[in-house]
Amino acid sequence: MKDYFKVDEWKIIEEGFDPLYNKIAESVFSIGNGRMGQRANFEEAYSGETLQGNYVAGVYYPDKTRVGWWKNGYPEYFAKVLNAANWIGIDVNIGGEQLDLAKCEILAFRRELNMREGYLKRTFHVRNEQGKEIKVDAIRFCSMVDDECGAIRYTIIPVNFSGDLIITPFIDGDVVNTDANYDEKFWDEVKKDHSNDGAFVQLRTKKTGFGVATAMKFSLIKNESFIEFTSSPVEKEKYIGAEVKLQVKEGEAITLIKYATNVSSQNYPADALEKRAADVLAHISQKGFDTMLAEQAVAWAQKWKHNDIIIEGDAKAQQGIRFNIFQLNQTYTGEDDRLNIGPKGFTGEKYGGSTYWDTEAYCVPFYLATAEQKVARNLLLYRYKQLDKAIANAKLLGFNNGAALYPMVTMDGTECHNEWEITFEEIHRNGAIAFAIYNYTRYTGDESYLTDYGLEVLIAISRFWAQRITWSAQRQQYVMLGVTGPNEYENNVNNNWYTNTIAVWCMQYTLEVIDKVKQDDIVKYNALVSKINFKETVETDKFKDIISKMYFPADEESGVFLQQDGFMDKEQLLVSDLPSSERPINQKWSWDRILRSVFIKQADVLQGIYFFEDRFDEDTIRRNYDFYEPRTVHESSLSPCVHAILAAKLGDVERAYQFYLRTSRLDIDDYNNDTEDGCHITSMAGTWMAVVEGFGGMRVKDDTLSFAPLLPKEWRALSFQIGFRGVLLNLKADKIGVLIKNISEQSIDIMLYNIKYKVDANSELFIKN
Amino acid sequence: MKDYFKVDEWKIIEEGFDPLYNKIAESVFSIGNGRMGQRANFEEAYSGETLQGNYVAGVYYPDKTRVGWWKNGYPEYFAKVLNAANWIGIDVNIGGEQLDLAKCEILAFRRELNMREGYLKRTFHVRNEQGKEIKVDAIRFCSMVDDECGAIRYTIIPVNFSGDLIITPFIDGDVVNTDANYDEKFWDEVKKDHSNDGAFVQLRTKKTGFGVATAMKFSLIKNESFIEFTSSPVEKEKYIGAEVKLQVKEGEAITLIKYATNVSSQNYPADALEKRAADVLAHISQKGFDTMLAEQAVAWAQKWKHNDIIIEGDAKAQQGIRFNIFQLNQTYTGEDDRLNIGPKGFTGEKYGGSTYWDTEAYCVPFYLATAEQKVARNLLLYRYKQLDKAIANAKLLGFNNGAALYPMVTMDGTECHNEWEITFEEIHRNGAIAFAIYNYTRYTGDESYLTDYGLEVLIAISRFWAQRITWSAQRQQYVMLGVTGPNEYENNVNNNWYTNTIAVWCMQYTLEVIDKVKQDDIVKYNALVSKINFKETVETDKFKDIISKMYFPADEESGVFLQQDGFMDKEQLLVSDLPSSERPINQKWSWDRILRSVFIKQADVLQGIYFFEDRFDEDTIRRNYDFYEPRTVHESSLSPCVHAILAAKLGDVERAYQFYLRTSRLDIDDYNNDTEDGCHITSMAGTWMAVVEGFGGMRVKDDTLSFAPLLPKEWRALSFQIGFRGVLLNLKADKIGVLIKNISEQSIDIMLYNIKYKVDANSELFIKN
């Protein structure tokens, strides 16, 4: 755990520059707007350790995988988020020497992510090798209003000299992915152009043929006035810059305003991109930097109004949750149902930036409660639109009759993961996708989704389970063999309790939804039956037979559900038996040792208990929590949040608090030594759940929101906003009581500590402790 | 199954040329002498489909592996058998046109592997694009006498023209491995040289730094006389040729004799290689091609005298077994204890040509019975010498106190395999290595090996098992979790019966050998104890505790040993339930489907029953055979032989015969559609076992050889030679009876059909049926 960044409730602050932390800082200070995003690389040249990253949402490259040995059915490609053209670049040359912070003496340096207003600011004061000193003040952001745009204000003050200054703002498409399997470049140049105050580069991805035009327009300000200038083009492959030679005077500020845009062939025909880029740049430069920045602050204020969580009395916890919410909003806005939430968002390349079950299990609840209904709905539609590919994927693995297996990792619906124990066996992801449909309907009450889209997905998933589950003649029960559960520290096990549980739940829920849709709209139901050739009686009989005869492993003696068959054959050690030198076990132990050990990577049985909490009495939950948590090493970023929620539910608020701190400050404090690769975006939604469902005790049951706040002793107060079926609520819990404000024109019934209250429109409810 | 090659008892014959079969033929017609070997590539250029392969034993390259995801403890390198310099090359140019069978009209073509005398012969008659016809007659071999050498006699007859003929014998070191992970070339040039009648290229492998000098010397014959000639050098990178321009007359034969040598820095200092190559070439060219060829025939006659198996009345079976014996002798001669037997020998690159457990489980019995004692002993010493690395390997995986885990695949003792389910979990290989020590001692009676080497290996292996096996508190028994058994169609299973069985056997045998060595040589024993810090009482108590409390899975109902925990939960299908369109399952099914199916790749429980046959009554063997064989798809080349032996033992000689045919003609008939990659060398030893242990019923028990011949109805007679403790026996079984000749100066007691007989020196025993 590192203590590098300053604690501030609304900012992340780096004071002074440590090159060793630069890649971590680049991740943490990332900015984005759901459409584009980037790591906090420097505008000017930097020859030290850096991971360049500019990303355009939805633009990917299917990199040919290379494994030593093939299993039949492995995908040949892994879809990677592409490092796209660098639009922030500003080359600065002082008296013949290129500005490069790796080669200067750094007299002062400060980097600051302003989360309230959504921009990145950097100021520094350096002395170059010639002894010339400059101060730089740089602000940039990805606009939430003009979401194809970014803007930079870069001010240079010569501190102790007058003379030549060359500034070359540029667009550089000659970039690489550091995770490229064949050290190949993924972009080809289509065309480029230069004008006196701008430049344009259009690139096309190899294989996928995505076209992206990146363009800039710039102006220069001296003494608060725009100045005339003449630029000369600097051209290299996929690169174009506009070199401006200036004479500067000691103490006189020169400001470069750089407007940039990324426009993509996903949204416009490729041959219209140049025109579109020019139009966009004309529009924003007309508006001007200051207006854009002001609009950005307004847009973020709007977000925070719905999203913000206030933790009083604990600045670290406060900073942590705001950072998580900020990054989630930067990553996905829900405007485009072709997009999704990669594990690293726009903060790094790792994991390919594709879609995992994280979206359904962790992110959907966040967007349900903090954004318009369509945002979560678009996440669901993303999967609906990929149903054909999920059916094709299942077919590759030997399933038929429209059975669907959603991919473990995907960009466009095709599987692009290739470890057999995950790709083929971590099939519980199908369950999370069904659960998200249930969760969405439960939360929003929008049952039309089931009729129009949901049931079709549910039947396809249930068909998969009905084929994947087999009959054990010896047991006279159904079993599910050869799976990997959420705890990826077990592979190819039989009867993973979680997977068996969610599979049977999927079939039960599918039966319920069939009944509901038949009642609601028999015409649409019949159309679906015929579209997917659903043999209702035969197929539902099969579902029912499995539901009634499924085997669920359990241990009589300890009264817990068994993670899988044979779990009690393991040496029953606890994490507390492990010397710290052996941890994290995934870095210290060989894989076989991890597998045969009792140690658990992330919630598995407990994930099921979290999902289906209502089925279990508190004793059962406690027995399982007390059994599994001490065996859990939490080596997945998705682990602490579920444990925080369960600990809070069981009243162990201090343990919940420890889990919360770990999850909320995972990246700021670089807990897992891997923030340099990018931030853990999807687990940030888990952090939100830890606060709202854990300390806020929020649940939805029978169309009603309920709360049961329970605060750690470190917190004076906790407040958050929740949107629910057209109502915006603000809840504030402190030592005295709970205050719930209804900030809407509609009354609502809620449950607080199991008691029902009505909160009228625009009024509040206060319940003393 | 293909029927491409002609059936002949002593030859493999290809009549006519089918380019589609060329890579298969290149594998099948491979030649070698244990020190070097090569695929049956053409001497002249060939632009069609071919897999170039020249190999020098023990020379390998650690190719950096590239997998999508790393598990802790994976090796970074995979040691590959190197495609070395092409020494056979003879470029032929007729009237300006390069001879290339892919571009000629082929009027006649015949390729023939003479197994009796150990050479490859090829004759063809072609018409080139200009209409010029030539006949070629080419013979080549890798000398068994001069084992660093090969020689070629290449005769060209212009059939319908007189004119220019250019012949360029060459050495080409600019070769690639088709399985290179990074399309990298593995050799660097050190130096090269040309003389009028020869050429020399010295190369060095990257990383490993092996030096290999490949050199040639040639002469030309016209009208049965050597002719004078002038050659001009042709030089390219790592290539050197000697171009000779000739005028030929219609019908007049021109013969090129090419002598070649590979000398390696494994045997001489790198700077002495050039001199050594020149000396060797001088020696063999002095001798002359005809003498070398005659010596080759004598050397092979000597081999066949000890090795041959004669099957009368069944030419296909005869050809099959001879081909297997021939290839085994070409691959490993036992002269050098640094060498071993790669799964493809010198016939292809696949599997890296390294050492697998195949050596101990399948090859040791063959060499024990058919070669001098030192040959099997050298195979054992190979592992002894790598014990330190096996201990280091185990340490990487978390074991200590001198526990050894031999690598799954190796060239020099370090692990170079990287699929976690195999590398880390297919640990039964350790058992086979211990079993080979037992087998060697049982066969040879050489107990000094135990004292000097064997016990040290056995203790290290038992230490591994004692740590790998864990205590199940719930069962109150020892268990072994997370293994892959011989049946690789199951991964990461608990309590594989075979692995549990051989592990416990290892500990039992180690205890026995400890007692024996203590009695035989307490001084050496004490030295060993101190060398390896063996805490005898504590450690043997642990072994004994495990032996007495080990859990072995079994199914009460069917009375069979269970392949692993949970096996009866599978859908109990039989191979006969599988439509042929679904087979082989490893090409038709995804990996997860294979894993959760009941289908077995190769003998697993039955491998254990084969090894420890004496422990089980015939009913038990039959029950297990009847249960497992119908579930076995035999998709490993190592599967049919063990089943043949068990079927023969159980009296089902016709089923045994079917297994035998499949294993013995696997490559000739390209059963598995993969002979183009190379021949299945190690399974060839299994074929030998199928004949001698299966149909011959040979066993060794209590220092006595026993036989119980049982012939398939297709065979008139079966005879084979067996060397046993200084005695050479020839056994011949036919419809009338069994004739055993003792061809040695020493009498021997043998068992025939469970009755004891004495066979005097140089006499014979005939027992009528």
UniProtKB/TrEMBL annotation, chains A, B:
Keywords per UniProt: Hydrolase
MF-aspect GO terms: carbohydrate binding; glycosyltransferase activity; hydrolase activity, hydrolyzing O-glycosyl compounds
Domain Glycoside hydrolase family 65 N-terminal: 13-265
Keyword match Hydrolase: yes
Pfam families on file: Glyco_hydro_65C (PF03633), Glyco_hydro_65m (PF03632), Glyco_hydro_65N (PF03636)
Residues holding substrate: 357-358, 601-602
Positions of the Glycoside hydrolase family 65 central catalytic domain: 322-689
Source taxon at top rank: Bacteria
Entry annotation: catalytic residues: 488
Residues annotated as domain Glycoside hydrolase family 65 C-terminal: 698-758
GO biological process, alphabetically ordered: carbohydrate metabolic process
PANTHER family to which the protein is assigned, alphabetical: GLYCOSYL HYDROLASE-RELATED, MALTOSE PHOSPHORYLASE
UniProt xrefs under NCBIfam families: PRK13807.1 (NF010380)
Similarity comment: family membership: Belongs to the glycosyl hydrolase 65 family.
Protein name per its UniProtKB record: Glycoside hydrolase family 65 protein
Organism of origin: Mucilaginibacter segetis
